[in-house]
Specification:
The protein is α/β, with parallel strands linked by helices and 309 residues long. It has a single domain, classed as NAD(P)-binding Rossmann-like Domain (Rossmann fold, 3-Layer(aba) Sandwich). Helices cover 44% and strands 14% of the residues. Helix 1 links the parallel strand 1 and strand 2. Helix 1 crosses helix 7, helix 2 runs parallel beside helix 3 and helix 3 runs parallel beside helix 5. The longest helix has 21 residues. The chain is globular. The termini are far apart. It binds nicotinamide-adenine-dinucleotide (NAD). Nicotinamide-adenine-dinucleotide (NAD) binds next to helix 1, strand 2, helix 3 and strand 5. Nicotinamide-adenine-dinucleotide binds next to helix 1, strand 2, helix 3 and strand 5.
Length: 309
């Protein structure tokens, strides 16, 4: 397939573009920043440029992974977020319809489901973890979430009004950097990321693979919106205990975790405030992450007793 990939210079784009090429696709990378996988330097906010790129490329699919995300909030105005994440997505969708591009995959974010109340651990007025599925009505807490939600709505509109096949991937965190709250917990980065695979993270390789599957399935699905995160072992009736004593809940599902963690000097979060449920992606999209908490534990067991730090 001839594919336009936006955000090709980013963390996801640099992983996804080689994967698509290995599968035999022709990938044109579009990004304002130059990098290996980027063929065209430009912004999705530039309608004229988007029009000419689509006219010249005769693409069979657009994967729209480019844009501004949470770390960009401090560096960019709300105007810029609107121009890039909303107008930019509109430009791509509108030109896709004008120029008969039949498939569109949009990289969204689970972050848009986190309201101020969920973040404060007050989901539904109770002190329990929020169980998050595609059925919830998001109330984003920042300009990143609001613009991503608006872009999701545009995707839905272009499917309903024009029949464009669209898959929206509400992707959990896969960034390599330490969390902005990391200073608050005395934990190695590897330890924190392992914990997060229980409820709010996936590897960048799995994020890329979800896009590959979305691309393959878009025409059959017509429209789909999926949470993409490593499979959680938890169930909705764990939510109260997750908030008050997460280690006990984790130990119920993984009885060997406390010993494996102890010998590395690792710790579990005391409290878990949300769980992204990716079961709809498993059942309808046919995608499940390869790496989850169980795989991490298997790796720890195979590594033997030496300290990891
Ligand atoms: N990193 C995460 O944990 C995470 C989690 C959920 C969703 N996402 C989403 O995944 C996508 C990729 O994120 P990433 O982690 O690779 O981030 P990244 O910042 O590494 O990559 C984003 C890329 O988009 C490009 N970009 C910025 N403005 C653009 C514009 N006007 N036109 C075209 N491209 C533009 C950037 O130059 C960058 O290369 C983003 O849409 C992000 O919102 C990321």
């Amino acid at each position: 397939m001839r594919i336009l990939l936006t955000g090709s210079s980013g963390w996801l784009g640099q992983t996804l573009a080689p994967r698509l090429k290995a599968l035999g696709h022709q990938v044109t990378g579009l990004d304002p920043v130059a990098a290996d996988q980027t063929t065209i330097i430009g912004s999705v906010a530039d309608r004229g440029m988007v029009r000419s790129v689509l006219r010249d490329g005769r693409f069979e699919a657009i994967i729209h992974a480019g844009g501004l995300h949470k770390p960009d909030i401090d560096r960019n105005s709300r105007d810029t977020f609107m121009a890039v994440n909303v107008q930019g997505t509109f430009n791509l969708l509108d030109e896709a319809v004008e120029q008969d591009v039949p498939r569109f995959v949009f990289t969204s974010t689970t972050s848009l489901m986190i309201s101020a109340a969920i973040r404060a651990g007050r989901a539904g007025g109770m002190r329990e973890a929020a169980w998050l599925t595609e059925a919830m009505a998001p109330e984003p807490r920042n300009i990143y979430g609001v613009t991503k939600l608006a872009a999701e709505k545009l995707c839905r509109f272009y499917h309903d009004a024009f029949g464009l096949a669209v898959v929206v991937l509400r992707t959990a965190r896969f960034f390599p950097e330490a969390d902005d709250m990391a200073h608050a917990i005395d934990q190695s980065d590897e330890n924190t990321k392992a914990n997060e695979l229980l409820f709010r993270r996936l590897t960048v390789g799995d994020a890329a693979e979800a896009h590959v599957v979305a691309l393959q399935r878009a025409s059959d699905l017509g429209f789909g919106l999926f949470i993409v995160s490593a499979p959680t072992p938890f169930r909705p009736d764990d939510c109260a205990a997750l908030m008050t004593d997460a280690p006990a809940v984790v130990a119920r599902y993984f009885p060997d975790y406390p010993a494996l963690y102890r010998r590395r000097g690792w710790t579990m979060f005391g409290s878990i405030d949300r769980v992204y449920d990716a079961s709809h992606a498993a059942s309808r999209l046919g995608f499940t992450c390869k790496t989850g908490f169980a795989e991490v534990l298997r790796g720890l067991a195979e590594d033997g007793p030496q300290a990891r730090g």
